[in-house]
Amino acid sequence: MSRLAFILNGPNLNLLGKRQPHIYGHETLADVEKDCRALAKELKVDLRFHQSNREYEIIDWVHEAREIAGGIVINPAAFTHTSVAILDALNTFEGPVIEVHISNVHKREEFRHHSFVSGRADGVIAGFGTQGYQLALRRVARLMVEKKA
């Protein structure tokens, strides 16, 4: 199994650190990527890190991951609650998938309580701020090793 992990980010996460910092914090997506790359190096995992405001691009990256990656960490952002298409794409991926949310979605508006992606995810991390990405990357790396064994 590949030691490559994809970290996929959905809409508006390009505004991390600027948009609603009282909910999402002051770290930028570039900060998150830097921290994840440092951890990936420590874990001996190769990393692809992407963000898009376009649903089809996220789906295309999942399709790409099917061919070359061992695991996916995904923060689908608002697509969490709306995208059966991303769920369908993730259902074609055979490796581990960890869903991440910076905020605790269960303490927010009721429409945020339902996730289509959770139906496929091997785990969900919510409410740990941007540290959730590192927790998810550690878990996906572990699951990739266990699946290989």
Radius of gyration: 14 Å
Q: Which topology does CATH recognise?
A: Rossmann fold
Q: What is the number of helices?
A: 5
Q: Which structural class do you get from the secondary structure elements? A: alpha/beta
- The CATH first-level class comes to Alpha Beta
Question: What does this molecule look like?
Answer:
It is a single chain. Helices cover 40% and strands 17% of the residues. With 149 residues, it is α/β, with parallel strands linked by helices. It has one domain: 3-Layer(aba) Sandwich (Rossmann fold). It has a 5-stranded parallel beta sheet with strand order 2-1-3-4-5, sandwiched between helices.
In brief:
By secondary structure, this protein is an alpha/beta fold.
Outline the fold blueprint.
Elements: E1 4-9, H1 21-24, H2 29-43, E2 46-51, H3 55-68, E3 71-75, H4 84-91, E4 97-101, E5 123-126, H5 131-148
Parallel strand pairs: 1-2, 1-3, 3-4, 4-5
Task: Throw out a few tags for this protein.
40% helix; 5 strands; alpha/beta
